[in-house]
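FAQ: What does the model actually see?

It sees only this:
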Amino acid sequence: MLDVVLACYFRRPISFAEHAQGLPELFTGRRRKLIQIYNRLAAEMDSVTLEAVEQEYTRQSGTDGEKLRMLQDQIDAIAKVDVDAQMPYVLSRVALWIRECAEERAADRYVDARARVRHLQSDEARQELKEARDHLVTTALGLANSIQIESDSELMDAEIPEAGPVIEGLLDAGMVGLFGASSKSYKTWVSMMLACGVAYTGRWLGFRCMKGKVLYLNYELTRKSAQDRLKAIYGALGIQPKNMIEVVQLKGAALEPEVIINTLMQRCRLKEYRLIIIDPLYVFEGGKAENSNDEMALLMLQFIALATKTGTAVWICHHFSKGNQALKDLLDRFAGAGALGRAIDTAVGMTPHKEHNDGDKIYTMEFEVRNHKETDPFVVRWQYPLMVVATGYDPAELKQPRRGAASQYADSDFLHCLPAVGEGAPLTYGEWKKAVMQSTGIRSDDTFKRRRKALVEAGKVVHVGDGYAKPVSKISVNEHPNGELER
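And it is asked to produce this:
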């Protein structure tokens, strides 16, 4: 009786009803009755217990002994559900919902206890806050079960299996990789080639790949476009499809990232995927602010949990920010918050080469690896439908903007958001930096600090109290021979 168990863990009737409506295959005709029972009990009691719902359901449904035994058997089975074990997908979703509700209750309890301490300042309130904090740590954050504490001796003596490579020298099982390039730079083609390398050929741009099943989350291409591209790549590589790549068509799907990741955690255990490819990240984000370190850090933590708990490598396709990429470090080229680059294990960038032009698409592949030896950059060339390694080019010679600017950003990129002295409220350092980062895509604090200092020293920016502003433009005034003023 999955319905009964869910009713006992969802405190708000509308939440239970929404979840019930959202998964019709999980519920039987008893759903409406259980919701009515839950609503009535919730109006009479501060909390709804499993026993209360069971008793009320029994009272309304009769006392058939066989039905009651079946009911109790199912309740007992669900109560023992372990999210981390192999299990049918529906049961795992129930267990995840139960855990989420427990987390929400623990967080609410902590917030309430903290408010009481501020209001009452009593020993009883402080003790409640301590207990609520302990409950939050062990329940909401799951640290009691997920954090392992061991001595250095235990760690040194432990027999820890090596994480198998997925892309040799670049990405291992249980790790997260971020692959980026500018818009319309064949990111999807290259990622599809990687899927083929892991699933069939065992090679990708010169790297050896460990073969296994691949799950490709396609947010960008239509189903027909995905089919056409795979056919072209399979034909060029001589691949015969053998059900080694599974494509999830998500273009236009309005699904929250958390829902998808929870689903993947269960599918990976059942299917034993070697690699999950998410293409592209900006669609997967589900409306989260790409420039928010807080929101991106939480999203990346979910990717890390997905990779760690399933032992599957995760490959995320992302786009570069605007501006001259040749003057940025690789991790600074990715658009959005800096948390993206800091959270991943491997970064791969594909940046236009100096010889890149409309007729010859040439790119430099660069790598930042956390758990491997440094990988030297090399050059690749687009030869439909494949990206191939190209020789005879210096990978360090990246394409520069046509305007040949000496610096990545013009002074106007930093000055346009500042008011002139006396024409508006000066911006604080933080306000100015935030405005510049949002308008230019700059992600490095050091870059902003250097340019701020240079602008102040050049007199193009002045301090006004605790803020910054542009000086009032100086207008030379000369008297014209005819007595008029000439500006």
